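seq/struct pair 1
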Amino acid sequence: MAGPTLGRILKARLKDRFRSANLPLLHKRTIRKKHSDEFRTGILRDQGAVDLSEEFIKQFWGDVMLFSVDKLTGSGYPDKKIGLKQITGTVNKTCDDLQSLYIKQQSETYEKMLKLGNYLDGTSYWWNTSRAMTGALKKFRLFRSTVERNFGLDSPAMKSLSEQIRTKVYSEKIIRSIHSFPEDEVCWKKALMSVSQKKNKPVATK
């Protein structure tokens, strides 16, 4: 979420000059030698199943950062100095709201998987009486088990995320990052200006 987060800051600074566009996402992540799909670093394959836990958790905390900064820019951040108390309150409120949203979505997904399970396991349905559908049913059942493993009521991802939210380890990192960004930006500007001056400095000749 680094790109979208910095985009919110640019939007706050550029105001009417800021432009955004919805572009199609063309994800062509393939390994050239085998021409097979390549997962992102936070997605793991384990004996046919796909583990989305790490990517799922990254997405949550990325959203916390993104929407916290989005709210704070409404108060003039980062050009206006925002106190640590306000930043902390904004991040914690955003975290709580997103957790409620994630839990709601998890519950809705669970209900859908129950319905899907009834269809897949119902012996009276025609797809369970046709040998031609055996391969397709196997893939649907794998899909269902993957969803339940990643988003079920007892999913490791949700348990890990709940623990991280409880201990506030990542929310505190986000708070410190947002609070220190204005000072970090000043340091970067000074460093870049120093490099630029060295490059433009005339070389003494004998």
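seq/struct pair 2
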Amino acid sequence: MTARLLDISRLVSRAGLGALTGIDRVELAYLREFIRRPEPLFGLCRLPRSYAVLNEEAVRRLEPYLSGDQPMPKAGLAKLLFPKFPAGRQAAIAQVFRASSGVASPRRLKQLIAKHVGARFCYFNVGHANLRVEVFQACGNNRKTVFIHDLIPLSSPEYSTPEVREKMLKAVKVVSEHADDLIYNSSATQSEAQGVFAQFGRVLPGVVSHLGGAATSANRPASEKPKFHIIGTIEPRKNHRLLLDIWEQFTIDHPAEEIPELHIIGRRGWLNQSVFTTLDVLPMMGKHVFEHGTLSDAETTAMLAESWGLLFPSKAEGFGLPLIEAAALGVPILCGQNAIYHEILGDYPLYLNVDNSYDWSKEILGRAGRTRESEADRQTRAASVKLPDWPSHFDRIFGSVTFPNRENDG
């Protein structure tokens, strides 16, 4: 069986930063799936000024630390060598060094891979990280597969910095020139990306496979008091401003007892100082609006399960895993008109114009004035939509002619 070399650079770089983001969770899902499968598995990790290769046993030992299921051991010497890195990343780097089969400079990467992985393997990069010419060249003629989650910095440049846009454009060019095939999370992403790849003169073969959500517990009734939730990094494209303006108007137009709660789950991001100022100074904070920062998957699911509605006024989205997880719990969803939502969820959500605060206000207050939903209500709603899951995702990937899984493939 042909070995698989999975790039885990993103997960290592994200260690200790709190709850995993959507792309982090995809890389973790692939890591766990490859551990489960019979093909030999190796890990590749980009470290400061070097690369490390890990065998399957080392990858297995590292997985619970990268997933957050176990606390990371002490960083040791890495704390001194990389003082500017967060403590979790320092500790993860230390673990990679301890567990690796070998470490080498970028110039010696090809020899490192050949020595510890062998001559024939499939390279997978599913984390939008470490998309570098040196890596693809080091893989030689072996099959190189890349997961494309979104190209938002290029398709919606107003939500990114020039540095981020330039970095993504460089990565897309590298993928176009050196990768063999692609995985897309949706037809919407595929359509958008193929237009970008066409600019470089090479549109790669690929397969669309929808992502699975986190495993959820049994449906629950809605909370006693009306509570609504928004989940995701607090950055401009997520459009927290719309909801904060709505809740500020609620405090002007309605008595306190009629105002539902808004719970914001997610870390503070970038280019959003006016929203951060609102969260820091407005009197409604801690009374009607609550900022929770990053929470574990279990904590987020527990809050979402009792929600009166997931609010998702995002102006640009790669996939939107929180919507999948809300639907699995039977929680109502109010969201924008992004094509990916229609592709995955069909008629389940209520679609609203993300620039029309009146419609959002009306729907939120209308739902807050209804009778509290029971567990049976949630079960009925959850049963109304067929949702993607991880087993189906991987069946699609490894059952596709684009990604054969036979002895003579490499």
